[in-house]
Amino acid sequence: MKKLMLLLPLFALIWACADANDKKSTKPAKKEKKVAAVDKPDGKKIFKINCVLCHGADGKLGVNGSKDLTAATISRDEAITQVTKGKGLMAAYEAILSKEEIEAVVDYAISLRK
Ligand code: HEC
């Protein structure tokens, strides 16, 4: 009986894997879409992972003296430099994010204004 209890989840796992493989082979179009999404960084996603902690989902949180991003007046270039090199308590992101990712996340941060 104990052996059966151990085997049951294993069968379920194998069945689930087989099922996943089936789906992959029948829908190649979906896979292509995913690859395309990786090429263009998702600024909103990057913001959620890296910036929400201090700036908040709406950019207004202001933790640790971080500025309200919706009230920011700095230019896109200045914002890119600040995110790349860091300022005050804000870390430099050049080691964490690629240039394209920084541009995408800055564009998203700017979209929070107004
Ligand atoms: C550790 C907390 C923290 C995190 C995480 C953080 N910031 Fe900041 N941010 C700050 C602080 C503090 C300032 C104000 C710096 C100063 O002027 O001294 C700031 C300022 C800014 C400014 C300038 C605003 C202005 O009006 O001058 C921008 C743009 C900005 N952050 C974008 C981002 C983006 C994009 C991310 C994610 C990649 C991010 N921040 C992550 C703390 C943080």
CATH superfamily of the largest domain: Cytochrome c-like domain
- Which fold name corresponds to the CATH topology of the largest domain? Cytochrome Bc1 Complex, Chain D, domain 2
Radius of gyration: 21 Å
CATH architectural name of the largest domain: Orthogonal Bundle
Which class best fits the helix and strand makeup?
Answer: mainly alpha
Give the quaternary arrangement of the chains.
Answer: single chain
Tell me the number of strands.
0
Distance between the termini: 64 Å
Number of domains: 2
- Which term fits the overall shape? elongated
The total of helices stands at 6
Mean pLDDT comes to: 81
Detailed description of the structure:
The chain has 6 helices and no strands. The chain has 114 residues and is mainly alpha-helical. The protein folds into 2 domains: 1-39; 41-114, Cytochrome Bc1 Complex, Chain D, domain 2, CATH 1.10.760.10. The longest helix is centred in the N-terminal third of the chain and has 25 residues, at 2-26. The chain is elongated and about 70 Å long. The termini are far apart. The mean pLDDT is 81. Bound molecules: heme C (HEC).
